[in-house]
Design brief:
Elements lengths: L1 E7 L7 E7 L6 E10 L2 H8 L6 H6 L8 E2 L3 E9 L11 E4 L38 E2 L7 E2 L9 E5 L3 E4 L5 H21 L7 E5 L5 H10 L4 E5 L3 H9 L4 E3 L2 H11 L5 E6 L8 H7 L1 E9 L14 H6 L3 E4 L7 H13 L9 E5 L4 H10 L4 E5 L2
Parallel strand pairs: 4-8, 11-12, 11-14, 12-13, 14-15, 15-16, 17-18
Antiparallel strand pairs: 1-2, 1-4, 2-7, 3-5, 3-9, 3-18, 5-6, 6-10
Helix pairs in contact: 3-4, 3-9
The protein binds nicotinamide-adenine-dinucleotide and zinc ion (2 copies).
The site of nicotinamide-adenine-dinucleotide has 33 residues, from helix 1 and helix 3.
Length: 383
Amino acid sequence: MKSRAAVLYGMNQDWKVEGIEVDPPKTGEVLVQWKVAGMCHSDEHFVTGDMVPPQELLAMMGVDDFFPFIGGHEGAGVVMEVGPGVTSVQPGDHVSASFVPSCGRCRYCSTGRQNLCDLGAGTLTGGMITDGTHRHHVQDGRAVKMMAKLGTFSEYATVAEASLIKVEKDLPLECVALVSCGVATGWGSATNRADTQPGDTVVVVGIGGIGINAVQGARMAGAKRVIAVDPVEFKREKAMELGATHTFASMAEAIPAVMELTWGQMADRVIMTPGVLHGEMMAEGMSLVGKGGTCVVTAISPMTSTEASINLFQLAMWNKEVKGTIFGSLNPRADIPRLLDMYRVGDLKLDELITRRYSLDQINEGYQAMRDGTNIRGVIVYD
Ligand SMILES: NC(=O)c1ccc[n+]([C@@H]2O[C@H](COP(=O)([O-])OP(=O)(O)OC[C@H]3O[C@@H](n4cnc5c(N)ncnc54)[C@H](O)[C@@H]3O)[C@@H](O)[C@H]2O)c1
Ligand SMILES: [Zn+2]
Ligand SMILES: [Zn+2]
């Protein structure tokens, strides 16, 4: 069938909105009509090249060319058709995208770490999770890859059942889309991965679609102080609305202030959620962490960067820890519905996260707004 999609043909280019061909679902696959797609910073990393695997790595994976590539991994939609063997969804069901698939059976899924499911391997390259072949083609007939094998920047996509979570039909699909990446990742970074405890001092560095939800997570976990750091004033104001107690324009500004606020103890948890994490930012990030404290690295760094400035003496002597996280270390099958339930009862704020809505044709305008810092989250709403 025909679809319209935002396709990237190379780095440092605009997304090109054009017609593509989508094949019907095979065994274990589902045709989805995406209704809403969130504009997460992770898709922007393909435009800048931060998340485009280097040629040597692609060659090792047997991939000739990374592009063309359909973006979008934050999303919500409606099931149109299911292939043989699909049991968890049926036509008409509402679904959330899950940028980490979960098979339920691998070593990681079966030990409560669905964010590390083995099916996530090769998520940025190659064909379908099910059999490695392709279901999506651009006009010249070439196969086109999809971000996280979801391609929520396409009206229609054929995706693996493992990448979809059924949600209740009365929930606004905009909210479902937000939860599918930004909310879960930010919230889980603060609650689950950082393990924020009542009374803690938590610093969140970078208040975009991810960081704002780390602020919400820290507040809900009972933090006494939630300190939001972002150079953009609008982001700091938004952070105060959603639970921050203090804000600063930079980590350099926050360090002496946190020292004073905590009588020298510094923060119990620091969550790093800037748009791009550069190695040198870790020096200030780690300076914000107090004795026995934790720094969670959620933001993505350029794929090939291998250096970070960390005072290793202090890491050892202050008994600090640094932890990475994917998807806030949550379990998509349990936690996407759980977060939506928290929205339903009013504990988790979702409507407040959307700054602007765009049509698919306005995608480049939406990403420009992200670069300009004028959106907490922009979303694409399909007709
Ligand atoms: N680990 C995961 O599973 C996961 C999932 C989704 C997104 N991410 C990553 O999380 C990061 C944040 O994504 P987003 O969608 O919220 O991005 P965003 O662009 O919406 O927000 C980033 C914010 O960081 C701020 N910022 C930039 N430099 C800063 C600095 N030096 N100090 C303080 N603030 C700074 C910006 O002003 C902006 O408000 C990205 O790297 C994204 O790829 C990771
Ligand atoms: Zn994302
Ligand atoms: Zn698994």
